[in-house]
From TrEMBL:
Family: Belongs to the bacterial solute-binding protein 1 family.
Descriptive protein name: ABC transporter substrate-binding protein
Keyword entries, A-Z: Periplasm, Signal, Transport
Keyword Methyltransferase: no
Source organism, top-level taxon: Bacteria
Entry's Gene Ontology cellular component terms: periplasmic space
Species of origin: Devosia aurantiaca
Annotated signal sequence range: 1-23
Length: 418
């Protein structure tokens, strides 16, 4: 018997007010970035006060790649110590067999969420995770510097490179640490997100299309990666090749970047009292590429809560997942964390609009959201993504040209998927 279950047994005689149910001791895993972990702890304290159940947070690395690897090990082993998993939007098809079907428990609230998000967490007719918030990245820009140099917000990557270069060079007389653009360039899932946006914005497809066609080896994708490679050491530091979300935000929030690609969570942190860029920035849709099919593209993200089939406290765990994805908690998330709700009505909430005015405005960015190819690749998505980000990282690092690396990637994906 695990220590956790032993404690639960000791608590068996402890009942909630009214004696209706016994208190449980639950565990939840989280790899939240920024101040997300503190936010989660605060909500769990509310949950305990309301239900009597106590919850232990098992911290995870912020890298989603590392998280997924650990999840897969635990679930394959039937680990009973973890009751609730915090899951990326792309993981449902890969981990569904290990999670409880929440369709019945959530029947009264499913219709409140965006249908596409519920669909993303439904596998073979079973709702395997409840959405907590959705995500789509934006271009963060220094509005004070654009005004100073008489520049408009760039709408293409070419314009971004040109504007970033001019402002960066102008500002370095006063700030030698200034860079033009920071993003997520490390070899992990975050680079898949960034690079998918570049490729899609040039009309280069979505790596693997919905019908299973491997589409990545094309001229538009080559052009997109050649453009991105040109940023390294010019408008972006060479160190960006090791940046995740937090490293990018660190440079940005110190006032050392003109532009940043990041997720909504970085907005509230950037406006904090200790931020060098508070009141000096805004967000816009990510730039488009070049060519007839060019468009702005933002990788669809988002996080959900799933209940493990191996949990020995499934009812209490379902109660926790329902609580953390409720309209009440989503509203607090939107106000305090600038996380995008999955409950459609909250986009018209006056208190959210007043406290976080970017939330209603993020609808335009969300409408440009592009899914990663987890649906057509199913259980092979993780390896598909790894092959893609490795090819992109090699290109950014100067290890082979974009054309060479995408040709190899196509062959590797054919071996994997076909």
């Amino acid at each position: 018997m695990t220590l956790k279950k032993l404690i639960v047994g000791m608590l068996a005689s402890v009942t909630l007010v009214g004696g209706a149910a016994q208190a449980a001791e639950l565990s939840i895993v989280s790899g939240d970035t920024g101040n997300g972990l503190q936010f989660l702890q605060a909500q769990l304290e509310k949950f305990t006060a309301e239900t009597g159940h106590t919850v232990t947070v098992v911290p995870m690395p912020s890298s989603t790649t590392d998280q997924f690897g650990q999840y897969r090990l635990w679930l394959a082993a039937g680990n009973t110590d973890i009751d609730v998993y915090t899951t990326d939007v792309i993981w449902a098809p890969q981990l569904a067999e290990h999670f409880v079907d929440l369709s019945a428990a959530a029947a009264d609230v499913i219709g409140d969420h965006f249908p596409s998000i519920i669909e993303s967490q439904t596998v073979n007719g079973q709702l395997v995770a409840l959405p907590a918030y959705t995500d789509a990245p934006a271009l963060f820009y220094r509005k004070d510097l654009l005004e100073k140099y008489g520049k408009e917000v760039p709408t293409t990557w070419t314009e971004l490179r040109e504007t970033a270069t001019e402002i960066m060079e102008g500002e370095r007389a006063e700030n030698p640490d200034m860079w033009g653009f920071v993003f997520q360039g490390n070899a992990y899932e975050g680079l898949t997100c960034d690079a998918l946006e570049w490729v899609k914005s040039y009309g280069g497809g979505q790596i693997v299309e919905a019908d299973g066609t491997i589409s990545i080896n094309n001229e538009q994708a080559v052009a997109a990666l050649e453009e991105a490679a040109s940023w390294i050491g010019t408008i972006a530091p060479e160190g960006v090749l090791a940046y995740g979300e937090e490293e990018s935000r660190g440079v940005w929030q110190l006032g050392n970047a003109v532009f940043m690609r990041n997720w909504p969570y970085a907005y509230a942190l950037g406006e904090a009292s200790d931020s060098a860029v508070a009141g000096k920035f805004d967000v816009a849709p990510l730039p488009a590429g070049e060519g007839p099919e060019a468009r702005s593209a933002a990788t669809l993200g988002g996080w959900n809560y799933a209940v493990s089939k191996y949990s020995e406290d499934q009812d209490a765990a379902i109660e926790l997942a329902m609580f953390l994805t409720s309209a009440e908690i989503q509203k607090v998330r939107a106000i305090e964390q600038t996380n995008l709700p999955t409950i459609e009505a909250l986009y018209d909430d006056a208190e959210i609009a007043e406290a976080a005015p970017i939330i209603p405005n993020w609808k335009e960015i969300f409408q440009n959201a592009v899914p990663r190819p987890s649906a057509p690749t199913q259980a092979d998505y993780n390896e598909t993504s790894s092959l893609f980000w490795s090819a992109v990282h090699n290109t950014l690092s100067g290890n082979g040209s974009a054309a060479e690396n995408l040709e190899v990637l196509e062959a590797d994906l054919q071996d994997l998927l076909q």
